[in-house]
Amino acid sequence: MPENVSASAALPPECGRQPSDLYKLCYNHLPEHRKFRDDHGLLDVAAISEEMSVTRQNIFLWLKNNRLPAHRVMQMINLRGSKLTLEMLAPYMSVGRRSPSRT
Fold first, then answer.
1. E strands, the chain, where?
2. How many folded domains does the chain comprise?
3. 56 pLDDT exceeds 60?
4. Which terminus of the chain is less hemmed in, N or C, by CB atoms within 10 Å?
């Protein structure tokens, strides 16, 4: 599989949804955090979550919502092999509460 896999190929067809813009950005700029299954490139969320010391569910939520908590931006930039920059992630930064209220 070529190293520069298109972001549209970042999710297998059986997922039934298109990847978010943040997912595409991460997939294309985190080459050491990709894995391949059945000729489909996937973002290795488990490796990212382990390296950032957050849950996989948090990573999935950020990617799904196209939002990255501002306090996590530098961690994303500093991931092993990352080619992400602050300018790339700025449109996806969210500022506010760290977790939803449980009322």
1. 34-37, 40-43, 68-69, 93-94
2. 1
3. yes
4. C
Domain span at 70:
7-92
Of 103, 14, 100, 101, which is closest to residue 65 (Cα–Cα)? 100
Using one digit for the tens of pLDDT, what is the confidence trace for 80-100? 999 999 999 999 999 876 555
For residue 99, the 8-state DSSP code is S
Is 0.90 topped by the overall pTM?
Answer: no
Q: Which helix (H) or strand (E) holds 56?
A: helix 56-65
Q: Is residue 99 part of a domain?
A: no
Pick from 74, 76, 61, 69: which is nearest to 25 by CA?
76
Q: Does residue 53 contact residue 76 with C-beta atoms inside 8 Å?
A: no
